[in-house]
Write a structure and sequence with these properties.
This protein has two domains: 6-67, no CATH class; 73-119, no CATH class. 53% of the residues lie in helices and 11% in strands. It has three helices and two strands, in the order αββαα. The longest helix is centred in the last third of the chain and has 36 residues, at 74-109. It is rod-shaped. The N and C termini lie far apart (102 Å).
Length: 131
């Protein structure tokens, strides 16, 4: 591999070039630019940064942010939370009803004298009070 000289590479970035825009019919120069590799790189970098900043600002400070998936208004988020709570409570009540029906099926299908109720209750023992 050829050795790259840092000074030579750095000098190449500062070499100036001329960009000329000409009229094709008359060959008159419309405009001419003096450019170097460094100035082109800096110009492209600045324009990229400005474009990204403008896009972020446009999305952050305008109603366009509501079109981003997963981002919604405060009202829609609170409505979603309420719906989640209702769904959880409905799932829990369905689970309890399924347990009750399974208990009834066990009582009717099995002739088990030990279990007389559909759901066994666990009542804590109370201590006798002395007056």
């Amino acid at each position: 591999m050829a050795n790259l000289d840092f000074n030579n590479t750095f000098k190449r970035t500062s070499n100036t070039y001329r960009l000329v825009v000409m009229n094709d019919d008359t060959y008159d120069e419309v405009i001419a630019f003096r450019l170097s590799r460094r100035s082109v790189y800096i110009g492209v970098s600045i324009s990229f940064i400005l474009l990204v900043g403008l896009t972020i600002g446009l999305i952050a400070f305008t109603p366009l942010k509501y079109y981003i998936p997963g981002y919604g208004s405060k009202e829609s988020r609170t409505t979603l939370q309420l719906l989640k709570i209702k769904t959880d409570s409905l799932e829990q009540s369905i689970h309890y009803k399924d347990m009750y029906l399974e208990g009834l099926k066990k009582v009717f299908n099995d002739n088990n004298p030990k279990q007389l109720d559909t759901i066994p209750l666990q009542i804590p023992e109370s201590k006798p009070t002395t007056d």
